[in-house]
Amino acid sequence: MRLFFAVAAAALVSLAAAGSGPPTLIKTITTGNAPCGAVAAFGSVWVANDGGTLVRINPRTNRVTKRVRVGRGACSLAAGAGALWIANYKRGLVRVLPGGRVRRIKVGAAPFDVLVAFQRVWVTSWKDGRLAVVDPHTLRIVRRIDVGPRPVGLIARNGVIWVGFGRSATAIARVNPLTFRVDRVEVGDRAPSWFVSGGAGDLWIQANDGDLLHFDPIGLRVLARLEVGRTLAQGAVAPDGTIWMPDKEQNLVYRIDPSRERVLDSFPAGPGAYIALRAYGSMWVTSYAGSDVRRFRP
User: DSSP string covering the chain, please?
Assistant: First the structure.
């Protein structure tokens, strides 16, 4: 009986998403040049602009209420341990307190992604092939882990840290946050770079520019491979259970039904649609080739 209701619920999600039409654009909010990372924290939405600023958006008014200079190269963004953390590929790891105070930490060459998990801040360094582990209170690097060439995206799932890779890599890495042991897991597709958390403990991996892999992190195997778009970026799960995958080359967002492992539709989402964020009952998409973030009602 429980299985019947689970299957029925999944079917309803699929039907609702397929028949509801494109999401409604609520607001286009100007943030600054080349908006990249986005995160929800401290009652606001924060957007890191590659042009050199971090902006705070009030989700009730859709207005920018603060701008903090963080240096050109600001991109991936995370929140935790009472602060915001930016992987600035030109200036290192940047910590920003909610009030606007900025502190820079050298973590390696070309920081790419940042994650706050297991009481640590984790940063991939593209040029070094390392994962830096930072104490968020002392701001000291407690470990530098060799994970392999050109590490990219990060996610915490099933009690471990998962690392994606660019270029010719065909495997991801699993890092134990206690022992720092690294295990390589083959996924059979080139450049498995970014992750999206799925349901029931699974993962979705953006790979080969336009592919999306359904991955079982327990059984360590790929369950399905979808050909989605041309140049996918970093996706997120929407309130209706669909996965939103921005395509920065086509200026679109694709919606995927994870239960049926298929693409439902796509819709325009601004120039260089890059990062999808679920926050405050909406979906937010940054326009990396533009200067704004777009808020949608799913």
Answer: -HHHHHHHHHHHHHHHHHHS-SPEEEEEEE--SSEEEEEEETTEEEEEETTTEEEEEETTTTEEEEEEE--TTEEEEEEETTEEEEEETTTEEEEE-TT--EEEE--SSSEEEEEEETTEEEEEETTTTEEEEE-TTT--EEEEEE--SSEEEEEEETTEEEEEE-TT--EEEEE-TTT--EEEEE-SSS---EEEE-STT-EEEEETTTEEEEEETTTTEEEEEEE--SSB-B-EE-TTSPEEEEETTTTEEEEEETTTTEEEEEEE--TTEEEEEEETTEEEEEETTSSEEEEEE-
